[in-house]
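input
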Amino acid sequence: MNLSFELGPIRPPSEAQSLLLRLTRNCTWNRCIFCRTYKGQTFSRRKVSEIKSDIDKVEKTCGLIREISREKGFGGQVGREVLVHVYRFCGYDMFHVASWLYSGGKTVFLQDANSLVMRTADLVEILQYLKQRLPSVERVTIYGRSDTILRKSVEELAELARAGLSRIHVGMESGCDEVLKFMEKGITAEQHVKAGLRVKKAGISLSEYVILGLGGRRWGREHPLETAEVLNAIDPDFIRLRSIAVAEGTPLYQKMLDGEFEEQSEEEVVRGERLMIERLDGVRSTLVSDHSLNLLEEVGGRFPEDKPYMLSVIDRFLSLPERKKQNFILGKRIGMYRRLDDMLDSMRYYQVETELYKLEREGLLSSTIAGLKDQLIV
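output
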């Protein structure tokens, strides 16, 4: 029996333990000049019957995995031993389901980049079927563009919430209209605000994504300041930070070569991050820096109570002597550091310093860091 089901290429880092179900293929917009994920790919909707069939396959796969568990004397529980067995002897789809069960089997992410574009009635049917066939599911999330959200009424969104849609992830990227236009995002700051408020009114959790440094040097102040204004107006449940890395082959890369876009330094990006956080006022959002592209992953917390801590982490980095800043930047990019305190490990610090000296001597520091960041782009 063929139990393989279709999986898309990406999901939010916060959905790392979620079951992935593909409702649509690729991106409805696919014109953002900084993104390379779906370039050259055509958007398409999958049939409801196909999606239901995938849900059935997941349910059957769960049964097979639990049978393996019982045969091994684990009573149907999916622990590490069962997970390792599935990894060694079964296909990727089965391992994906086993990993989901191992993590509790409670969360689902609906792929791809803007599956909210599907007809509301179809989404409701899928959500209800999902909850019926996989009753352990407690949270279901999806990507949605702001313009797509605005094509659905509050009542339609509330209907999706009642059917089981828990959270919408929105790629806001910036609250600055000039940046949004330059990046060909196809949306305005005002539309972001209206869409965000509509999601909240419908009772759905909202995650807004912001790309640090997206304004480059041209809009180095406008990007963080105007993004803060939009976030203040929305007060989303989550603010999730990403950092710009100009990927070779993207239209933005060509604009950079042509002198139309100039990347900020790592320190300039951090200063912009500080400016945005400083201007966030009256929100109760949780800020999460959950991507390894972010230089200061430890910046995070709940507003307003954790705002002083977030700013203190940034100020600690900015107050470092220039050599230690360069050491931390390289150490973070090569995976030696995750937090500023990691620099206190003298052995690690010396290893990074040795590599830093070598790259500086060879004139390869900037290109090496750019290459390391490029590997983290999805």
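quick obs: The first strand starts at residue 19 and ends at 22.
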